[in-house]
Amino acid sequence: MNNQNSTSNPSSQIDFEKLFLLIAKNLKVLLLIAGFSFIVTGIINYFILTPKYKSVAVLTPRFESSPGKFGALSSYLSGGGSTIGQLIGLGNNETDLIQYQNILKTRQLRSNIARDIQLWKRVHPNKKPINPLFAEAEAVGFLAKYTVITHGRGILSVEFDSTDPQLAYDVAHEYITRLQSYLTNHVVTRAKAAELFIKDQIAETEKSLAAAEKTYIELQSTAGVVELSAQTTLSLNTAAQLRSELIQKNMELALYKNILKDSRKVSHLRQERDQIQSQLNGLIKGDSKVGSGRKKSKASKNTDILTPLSKVPDLQIKFADVKREYLTEVKLLDLLREQYELARINSKRNESMFDMIDPPTVPLGPYSPKKLLNTLIGGFFGFLIGIFAILIIDKFRNFQRMPKRLLRIVKSSDDDQKIQIA
Length: 422
Hints:
Elements: H1 2-25, H2 27-48, E1 53-61, H3 71-78, H4 93-104, H5 107-116, H6 119-123, H7 132-146, E2 147-152, E3 155-162, H8 165-186, H9 190-223, H10 230-258, H11 263-285, H12 298-304, H13 314-349, E4 354-358, H14 371-421
Antiparallel strand pairs: 1-3, 1-4, 2-3
């Protein structure tokens, strides 16, 4: 083994020595080829290739807050957890990214961008469009070709490259602006739906309060202030509480039926509403049936020990009904106004529906071509091509010398044969 290594190493050393000697002998040729490649590559990169600029925008969907602040509505009215608060929930991040990407890739959005920034004129400043429709289609295709929209790991990236840095920025910025506008005008968030719903409820409650207040004042002016017994007052407050719960259930029903579209929850809420309605009827008429086989709630048990309002003298019951209506509407209106302000804040916070991680900017320099790197790479490849050329030239020279060597060998062999014959 040692002998084999000793014999193989000198041969390899001789090969490298021959290669270095060959390069040194043809150094001018090598430098000429490498220098020519370096100069040509530099000229192409610095003077011929058109620089390209890229503007990038990176965004992530905004997470909406989980149900929390809207718990005050249910707590204030019934002392329990908020069902209305469930209207505002956490969105699916990946689903939002796919939705945003599909919106940005629509032809209508690209057409609006191309028209607003006059893309065709900026790409072809010295031309006039023969047909405006063809020009618009060409501009839309230009956007589709040079725009890269990708998503992954919770972020969405919008890239656009152009030979004009300002155009690259304008297009990227317009993409984000158009996405924001579309989401604001066409996609109603849960927070916005809650705001609009509560606003409608406030308008209806204001009308009901105005009617109740008018009736209450008219009754006071005609019958004077009527004193109610303690038992009647307790029954009146309990009835107001039950009616508030009933109003809340009706609001929740409207939410799940018209906005959330949850039929199973609607059926459950209807059962709860019917139960509260039964309790209220029992307090007013003395009929406290809640339903066959159904366990009575705590509120239902309380109504059993109260004097039914139907057994109160007529004047007192009339005054109690009017006062109950008035106080209920006042309480409900104050609560809805408070919740409306919370809903407006939450809706405003979620207005953008996404957060900008990297806003688009005007690129300060081209991203392509990488002039210095490309020039150095061109020089390096020129150096390798030069070595390859030297080896080919050397092989060609050896091939040309081979016939002369063969003649010498043949001639020398003939001379040897003649000497042996002599």
